[in-house]
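User: Can you help me understand a structure? I only have the sequence.
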Amino acid sequence: MRVEGAATSAHAFNRLRDIASDEGERPLLNEQTLTQLKSLRLDGMVAALTDHATSRAAAELRFEERLALLVQREIDWRDDKRLTRLLKAAKLKVSAACIEDINRRASRGLDRHLITALAGCDWVRHARTILIIGATDYAT
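Assistant: Let's start by predicting it. Here is the structure, written out as tokens:
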């Protein structure tokens, strides 16, 4: 039963691939696929499929390449959604602050190499904690 189901799934998968390359049946397949992807909460893939449907360059890619792009788009979408949620939960006072806006005048005594190293976020990857103290020199 399991082997039979796998063969049926492989056949269906191959059929979908063939239909996806057939421009005549593409709109129906896309609408059904978009609905199914939405029900699976794969919104990144929905966005990618919608973008790729209008792109001639994407249509020229092999099936495996397009699938890889769809999967990568889903991963990126989830990462962006997670980051947005975490930033909102952090309730940062200055949410638009960025490393490029640091005032590095000599009188502040900031080590440019240290700031660059901290911006690389290796301390996060190594599960280390940092504490930055001192005047912020932030003007609202």
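Now, to help you interpret it: Helices lie at 2-21, 26-39, 43-53, 56-59, 63-90, 112-119, 122-125. The two ends are 68 Å apart (CA to CA). Let me know which part you'd like to focus on.
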